[in-house]
Amino acid sequence: MRGRFITLEGPEGAGKTTQIQKIREKLRERGVSCTVVREPGGTRIGDRVREILLSPEFSNMCQRTEILLYASSRAQLVEEVIRPALERGEWVLCDRYVDSSLAYQGYGAMWDLEEVKIVNRIATGGLVPDRTYLLDIPVETGRERLRLRGKKKDRMEMKEKLFHERVRQGYLTLAEREPHRFRVVDGTKTPDEVHGAIMRDLFLWAGI
Ligand code: T5A
Fold first, then answer.
1. What is the pLDDT of residues 177-193, one digit of tens each?
2. Pocket residues for ligand 1 (CB within 6 Å)?
3. Total-model pTM
4. How far apart are CA 61 and CA 58, in angstroms?
5. Which of 60, 136, 148, 187 is the most buried (most CB within 10 A)?
């Protein structure tokens, strides 16, 4: 039986990485084997593309290049990791996927949403997640978390606050349009509370 494809989405510092680790542990306890990946990256080619995409050195990157680079990293990840894992019957937990391109390049950078969708349909061969958790937090909360973490800002994090506000609203719009796939979770709660909310839904949905 084909595995299940779960994605986590959200603005900067929403807690996706933190939650994915917790979900993996909980699923392991239930005997479900998982492959965990993150975007951009997750393959040798994708990791190189990630360096280009996030380096502040390339502040002059044009919008088409950005859309295509995110999609190319994704194409490699789907082909090399995600599809094979699903075909082996594993669950795949993916930290960002096509919805990130729709939210950031579509809503954030205000590129034509249909064009972003077309490019990504080509990149993924039409592979859509079975379930998507949107961790919703205010832009300022996410920024504060990243500031406390103390890592240098990457090219995307350096974008203006208004850009990130559009990303957040864009995500909420995407979730509204596909209520059967998306679950919106309040990302401002403690990590354990967020985890509890995700697992309650996930167990119910998956019937395990
Ligand atoms: N991008 C990506 C696009 O523009 N288009 C695309 O198609 C794709 C795929 C990726 C960048 O690329 C953009 C989006 C991004 O700007 P990244 O470094 O992978 O760059 O960035 P993020 O995915 O945003 O990862 P972050 O690490 O910044 O955020 P996470 O994973 O959401 O958050 P996490 O778990 O690392 O937590 C951040 C901090 O907050 C704390 C953690 O301990 C950590 O210090 N934290 C909490 N604190 C309080 N309460 C909670 N509930 C907390 N949860 C976590």
1. 999 999 999 999 999 99
2. 10, 12-18, 39-40, 54, 70, 96, 100-101, 104-105, 145-146, 149, 156-157, 190-191, 194
3. 0.97
4. 6
5. 187
